[in-house]
Amino acid sequence: MSTGSGAHSAPAPNSQEDTVSDATATTPGTAPGIAAGPAATPRKGTFSSLRIRNYRLFATGQMVSNTGTWMQRIAQDWLVLSLTGSSAAVGITTALQFLPMLLFGLYGGVIADRFAKRRLLLLTQSAMGLTGLALAVLTLSGQVQVWHVYLVAFALGLVTVVDNPARQAFVSEMVGQDELRNAVSLNSANFQSARLIGPAVAGVLITAFGSGWAFLFNGLSFIAPVAGLLMMRTAELHKVARVPRSKGQLREGLRYVSGRPDLIWPIVLVGFIGTFGFNFPIWLTAFVYHVFHAGAGTYALFNGLMAAGSLIGALLAARRGSSRLRLLVGAAMLFGALEITAAAAPSFWIFAALLAPIGMVGLTINVTANSSVQMATDPLMRGRVMSLFMMVFMGGTPLGAPVVGWVTDTFGARVGFLVGGAISMAAAALIGLILARVGGLRLKIDLRRGHQHVAFVPRVADGTPSTEKELAAVA
Q1: So what's the pLDDT on residue 5?
Q2: For a Cys staple, 305 with which of 270, 355, 372, 446, CB 3.0–4.6 Å?
């Protein structure tokens, strides 16, 4: 995502309070972590990026297709559970959908860097619509079997390998670098708004008519983003130079990330949380089916409550002027603690009430990590870096979902949820300590009234490497 070609379009820091990523864009001849360019202008408002016509078209199309996507997710999970009665089967479906990202995710990033992203998105969005229509035909005809759902989920995952990095990287081509953070947050708000609508509509359709109509709506919903892409004014896009085809581009991307602690550790953290902490289709279906003995409407309600919290989190993120790493680590620890608390909730309504804050904090993790990594990355590397980010975040699901599904089936929904929360919390604590050590931070305890009692503060001495000083300043 870039406002122009080459490293000269790398992001400048927005403020001294910005995340590591805001202060680490590079220009030729500078070491990683040295800020390039003048300070950017202050925040411009919660919806500032919507003033850009191309982004409005994109956001409108995504709102429609995201609604369809959430309808299909609810219908797909419930269909698999109805066909098999197994939470592990739901986990297998989720795993198959994200397995291609784990296997081929980095190749998707290379493709996104090599080709025009708008054209790639026209192909991928059309293909995603066809997968929804295929599942609709199978279900409405009464021929659907669980292996059909597995196959469609895997096919959708293959398309997502290219769609995700291309869509992520296309945002800055629409809005430019100054509006990138705002647009990333609004994309999440868009997705979560659809998450409020989609499950509610899906619950009604499944209860009244069956899952097939939800799949049909999802397939047709992709007409909207395709139309939006076709209507864009290409002359108004912020062009970025394509990366020429050459050997070793995957290794180049991995070396780039491995040498940047401000990139590698946030990616590792979201990998743990994505693998073990975001298995909500497994846990929520298990709680609905086995703990509360309810139906698809309750499953839609739970997803709607999480979406409401996520939407609030996304709008707060859109207003936030910075994405510091301490916010990411703190949110991850709170996320794990909330999941542990929900696992032990003694009643239906206490469990339901905890879903909104879980959604809000989970969204904060996603947006903070996403915007931090994007803002820190050189434009010519962004497709590969974001593919690695999405590969770790989403591609870990094939590893975690079957395990979490087995734990949930074997020991119950409460134990499965608790294990996911405990792993997320432990990973956040460990990576927080690693970042503090790498950044030369120390724990400061101040018990005076009116002061922050516990905080990490820089411990930077003469001779400390410059990248360590910069990480300490913005962590």
Answers
A1: 33
A2: 355
Report how far residue 257's alpha carbon sits from residue 250's, in angstroms, rounded to the nearest whole number: 11
Contacts of 33 (CB under 8 A, 6+ apart): 20, 23, 24, 26, 260, 262, 466, 467, 470, 471
The whole-number pLDDT of residue 190 equals: 80
Q: How many residues does the chain have?
A: 475
- For residues 121-143, give the mean pLDDT: 93
Query: What is the rounded distance in angstroms from the CA atom of residue 83 to the CA atom of residue 262?
Result: 45
Cα–Cα distance for residue pair 376/7, rounded to 1 Å? 12
In terms of DSSP H, where are the helices of 320-461?
325-343, 348-376, 382-395, 397-411, 413-438
CA distances from 332 to 8, 71, 352, 360 (A): 34, 28, 20, 11
User: Cα angle vertex 171, ends 168, 176, to 5°?
Assistant: 140
Cβ neighbourhood burial of 123 (10 Å; 0-12, 13-18, 19+): middle
Residue 343 to residue 339: CA distance in whole angstroms: 6
Largest CA distance in the chain: 72
Tens-place pLDDT, residues 265-306: 888 898 899 889 988 888 998 999 889 988 877 887 888 888
Q: Is 424 left (phi over 0), alpha (psi -120 to 50) or beta?
A: alpha
Contact assessment for residue 258 and residue 264, using Cβ atoms and an 8 Å cutoff: yes
DSSP state of 12: P
Residue 452, both tokens: 């922050």
